[in-house]
Amino acid sequence: MSTRDSPAQTGDLPPIGRPANSALLEAGISSLAQVAGFSRGELLAMHGVGPKAVRLLEAALESQGLRFAD
Fold first, then answer.
1. Partner of 23 for a Cys bridge, out of 13, 46, 60, 68, CB 3.0 to 4.6 A?
2. Looking at the domain assignment, is residue 19 inside a domain?
3. pLDDT in tens, the chain (70 residues)
4. How far is CA 23 from CA 34, 55, 63, 64, in A?
């Protein structure tokens, strides 16, 4: 899937950018609850997911009382 074909935002995920969103979708991740099952390192290892996306995801997780698996 090209990033052009990927939506800018999916489910309850924050707007983290098309490349990061596409990487999460390709990994089968479409919700914050699913993101919480991964560590920061696992997310950063995904092509398209960078430090800024991880910071945005962390803030969204915290607002829902969730956190990364690490």
1. 46
2. yes
3. 444 555 556 689 999 999 999 999 999 999 999 999 999 999 999 999 999 999 999 999 999 999 999 8
4. 13, 16, 22, 22
> What is each CA distance from 12 to 30, 32, 61, 69, in whole angstroms?
8, 6, 10, 18
Count Cβ atoms within 10 A of the Cβ of residue 36 and give its class: 0-12 exposed, 13-18 middle, 19 or more buried: middle
On whether residue 45 sits in a domain, the answer given is: yes
Q: Where would I find the H helices in the chain?
A: 18-26, 32-35, 40-44, 51-63
**Total residue length of the chain:** 70
Q: Within a domain: residue 37?
A: yes
Counting the structural domains of the chain, the total is 1
Amino acid of residue 24:
L
